[in-house]
Amino acid sequence: MKQLGAFFLVLMICSCSENTKFTQLKKDIDKLSGAYAENTNSQKDTVAEPQISSLQPNLNSGNPNEVFYNSGERREDLVNFSKQFIGTPYLYGSTDPKQGLDCSGFINHVYKTYSYNVPRSSKDFVNFGRQIDINEVKKGDLLLFTGTEQGSSEAGHIGIVITANGMNSEFIHSSSGKANGVTTTLLSEPHYTKRFIKAISVID
Q1: Whether the predicted model's global pTM rises above the 0.70 cut
Q2: CB of 166 within 8 A of CB of 177?
Q3: CB within 8 A of 196, min separation 6: which ones?
Q4: Which of 30, 81, 193, 203 has the most CB atoms lying inside 10 A of its own CB?
């Protein structure tokens, strides 16, 4: 009888031991499952969302006729850009606004920023672009003048229209005169009216 009791005691101990092992195994499995789930969620959280940027005009694309950038917008931008240089000193032979600008150097810098290849010298604008009637000028068009020498008929000065109004149009230019730098002037001022040669369109 004692032997039978001992047998049952051993059986109970083994059973308890197996239950303990099973319980521990279940805990280990649960722990591993939790770690996997946490790692998966963490990876989901770090997935980068695709960045969608709006299409913007590329001023240096080399193509001033991009379909998404019409001439009216380009004219407005070009004029606004040119106004940033008001007050820049006049410097003969320069196209660098950090140093100074002469009249054609100013035109050259502004237009090339917008991918237009224009002449470096004002006299070379005589046969450049499309001549237009002064009453048809728009913002961004060019006004060509003779030089300051008395009686000269040769082109020697140029500016950009910033307010289109026929012979009362306002233009921006780099002057070697009283302003001695980039300034704005009305075409109706006698000093420029008598020197006016023609209006030129380059943008369209």
Answers
A1: no
A2: no
A3: 134, 143, 144, 145, 187
A4: 203
Measured at the alpha carbon of residue 64, what is the angle toward residues 60 and 67, in degrees to the nearest 5? Answer: 110
90 within 8 A of 100, measured Cβ to Cβ: yes
Nearest residue to 79 (alpha-carbon basis) of 110, 120, 103: 110
Distance CA 14, CA 181 (A): 103
**172: phi then psi, degrees, rounded to nearest 5:** -115, 140
What is the tens place of the pLDDT at every residue in 85-96? Answer: 999 999 999 999
- Cβ–Cβ under 8 Å, residues 116 and 183: no
3-state secondary structure of 167: helix
First-last CA distance in the chain: 117
Residue 68: Cβ within 10 Å count: 9
Nearest to 158 by CA among 109, 87, 96, 99: 109
